[in-house]
Amino acid sequence: MLSLDSTIMISPDAVYSDIEDEMVILNPTNGEYYGLNPVGALVWKLAQSPVKVSAVRDAILDSFEVSPEECERDLLELLEDMAGQGLIEVTP
Question: CA-CA distance, 86 to 89, in Å (whole number)?
Answer without folding.
Answer: 7
